[in-house]
């Protein structure tokens, strides 16, 4: 339990550090600094990814892992080049607004799919809802648990966007890096 507290504390410190550096980068309009900060934020996750790839490779999927790695590197290089080349014309506020909306949609979809997966594993009960559509691509399943989980996710998302908008309109920065235009 103490380890969780330390982990949460480190995560909070990391979030504050990233937020401070991102705010400085956005205020300076420095695309190189923003690129460096993004690289640093992603670099921290590299070790977990390496462990994941090592587990896949040990199961005999080494060729597929290598092919995916090379494809990912090429795509990353193309995206980085495009971002650096066109960042002068990129409206960063709109970019973060659109990416925030996309993340919100993905959160609702993953809440539905995750709940359905737990039901399939037998870890959650299944209460069917007649007349409710099944749209697997959107994570919509005709069970009460999925509907409630997605509704809860949507309420949290809407409240988060509302709070962020209210903070921006009041002229103070939103907490935890939620800065959308």
UniProtKB/TrEMBL annotation:
The keyword Transmembrane helix applies. It is a multi-pass membrane protein. One of its GO terms (molecular function) is ferrous iron transmembrane transporter activity. Keywords: Membrane, Transmembrane, Transmembrane helix. InterPro entries: FTR1/Fip1/EfeU (IPR004923). It holds the Pfam family FTR1. It comes from the Bacteria. The chain crosses the membrane at residues 32-56, 62-84, 96-118, 138-163. The keyword Transmembrane helix applies. One of its GO terms (cellular component) is high-affinity iron permease complex. It is found in: Membrane. PANTHER family: IRON TRANSPORTER FTH1, PLASMA MEMBRANE IRON PERMEASE. Belongs to the oxidase-dependent Fe transporter (OFeT) (TC 9.A.10.1) family. This is FTR1 family protein.
């Amino acid at each position: 339990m103490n380890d969780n507290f330390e982990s949460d504390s480190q995560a909070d410190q990391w979030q504050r550090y990233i937020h401070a550096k991102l705010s400085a980068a956005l205020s300076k309009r420095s695309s190189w600094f923003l690129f460096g900060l993004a690289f640093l934020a992603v670099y921290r996750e590299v070790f977990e990814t390496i462990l994941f790839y090592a587990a896949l490779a040990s199961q005999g999927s080494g060729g597929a892992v290598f092919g995916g790695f090379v494809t990912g590197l090429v795509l990353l290089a193309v995206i980085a080049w495009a971002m650096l080349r066109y960042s002068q014309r990129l409206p960063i506020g709109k970019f973060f607004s659109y990416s925030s909306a996309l993340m919100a949609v993905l959160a609702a979809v993953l809440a539905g799919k995750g709940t359905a997966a737990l039901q399939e594993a037998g870890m959650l009960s299944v209460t069917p809802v007649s007349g409710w559509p099944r749209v697997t691509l959107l994570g919509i399943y005709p069970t009460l648990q999925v509907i409630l989980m997605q509704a809860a996710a949507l309420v949290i998302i809407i409240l988060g966007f509302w709070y962020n908008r209210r903070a921006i309109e009041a002229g103070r920065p939103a907490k935890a890096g939620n800065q959308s235009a």
